[in-house]
Amino acid sequence: MTPSALPRLPNDTARRLFLDKHGLASAPRGSGKGDDLFAVIDQIGFVQLDSINTVARAHHMILAARRPAYKEKNLRLLMERDRHLFEHWTHDASVIPTEFFRHWRLRFARDKENLITRWRNWHNNGFEGKIDAILKQISDHGPVTSATVGEDEKRNSGGWWNWHPSKAALEFLWRSGEVSVAGRRNFQKIYDLTERVIPSHHLGHDHDTDETVDWAARSALERLGFATSGEIAAFWDLITPDEAKTWCRAALAAGSIMEAEIACVDGAIRKVFMFPETLDSLDDLPAPPTRVRILSPFDPALRDRKRAERLFGFSYRIEIFVPEAKRQYGYYVFPVLEGDRLIGRIDMKSLRGEDRLHVRAYWPEQGVRTSKGRLAKLQAELERMARFSGCAEVTFETDWLRTA
To answer: How far apart are CA 232 and CA 250, in angstroms?
Structure first.
């Protein structure tokens, strides 16, 4: 077999590049507010929102992992006061730099076309007949929540399939771009007309599909460092896999991107795309700090579970929906990063009524020693997490330290 002529990144180099692109290769310092916080979000592209508050909500943990000085109010100020961020869908609900808003017009147009048919079948509750009434309500009386529309309609428990007609109409208006999220209170979305939420200089642009495909693919590859066309498409979840493939072929032919190979942790070789300038920068990559960081399960470095497993040998899944007796680890277990290695996972919960962060169990990864030095770094991180979640101390189950 003829050896490949493509440049190949060893696994440790690939991990360092990946962590650098995700804001985890430099010492976690900075004010964590204003321009500094915005720069973090711009670097990683978006921050996924999640309601689970076992220790702190995912978006706050993502930012605190990179900026320990971060306070929860700082994200709200960037979004609700400064309007530097808007909330919409990537692979899930996320906050995104508002300068990218015009590219979401492609998503709005596609969702408007697709959701009418899909939701008409799924909801079958007449939501289309509520759209104009909700727009008039917002226009005349100001922002609304899903609880303040359709007050005379039957409320069902359960998921989106049980939404009442006005709730479904409101979500449709958000997904199609006619209303925007003006803020959240107790994690409930507050909606207003888009022109009253998004600054005017970001409005008035018709979407250009070719321009958005180019931007989405290019900006995804910049933030990933290296990727397949499928990973490029999945990053923003804004363009289709076929559009990403077409972009890669054209960019490769033009010489603006190149092919390379990545060594996975198990020795397997994976072909990827990257920018030539990224290859040239590898000698300047920083060595990730050796401190321990506890990450959100929704951290962008872990969002693509298969990619994390290939690079780090870390197999992770959330067991929220797994019956308790069948869970391997726990309800909501946090990955633990040390330097460029994912060294374990920890089950912990903020018991705010008791003013303590309680650790139920810590499982080191296979081959990771629980030395005194490593445990001291983990203890320091747990104390930081306790302060961040508003607790005074850290407590442990008797058998909290498990074996690999």
So the answer is: 14
